[in-house]
Amino acid sequence: MKRFTTVVLTALAPVSWGSTYAVASELLPPDRPLFTGVMRALPAGLLLTALARTLPTGAWWWKSAVLGTLNIGAFFPLLFLSAYRLPGGVAAVLGSAGPLFVVGLAALLLGERASLRTVLAAVAGAFGVSMVVLTADAALDLTGVVAGVVSSVSMAAGTVMTKRWGRPEGVGPLAVTGWQLTAGGLVIIPVAALVEGAPPVLDGKALLGYGYMMLINTGIAYWLWFRGIGQLSATSVTLLGPLSPLTAAVIGWAALGQALTPVQLVGMGIAFGATVAGQLAAARAARSFSSPEKNDRNISMDLTNEQVRR
What we know:
Blueprint: H1 2-17, H2 20-27, H3 33-52, H4 60-73, H5 75-85, H6 88-96, H7 98-109, H8 116-133, H9 142-165, H10 173-196, H11 204-231, H12 234-238, H13 243-254, H14 262-289, H15 292-296, H16 302-309
């Protein structure tokens, strides 16, 4: 039951990220994705760090910078570049390949052995997402494709390294999340200034949108995400990723009046089923392969890992 609760709470992160497109299109200034990235990450990072009342020490200064760059500072700009250069469906499919990268990196760096069921769940999830978001007239752009793939690799590497490094002794996920968001936001600032120029003038609607993005879509969502990485396997966490495009499709249908075709509905069923199957496979792997040696190395899975951190 405790693992189930952790999975559900962690799943709220990609569900929240699925609302990004609707909020951005309805409330935020157009053509300012990098500024939006800064507004999402930096204020949330500073707020969480202030609430945690803990700053990095020693090696955690550079570790936070590396993790913040992988998870936020590089991921956001590359994701936005991919979205601008490619149809939204193609960009979403490239993003849905992230679990496959995590599976490979987790096996290499964490010793997490992915079962055939886990790999099939990751492939089925990407396939289901492609049925939901791809259109017949989707075109490819080399720069956009490269940016989309690299953004997925960046987030995958950030997820795995977050798991590998864990947290400093006595420091909770709130502080570590704040450090990463702050570092990531600082990385994006010079890129945003160079590409987009001065910040736009914000009206009340934009302030409402950015407030939601900062507090819910980023601050709370990333705290839940990194908390989940600390308690679950990296593979288990990343297999929740398809919930983001699925949520975006549901919001588009319910709030923006976008129609859903039978093919999209089937794809949603496949992607959601793959997400559930992936969690079941990850839970089975956790029970089979958890060991004291892995706990000592801070790469244990699920409940055993929480016991060690206490």
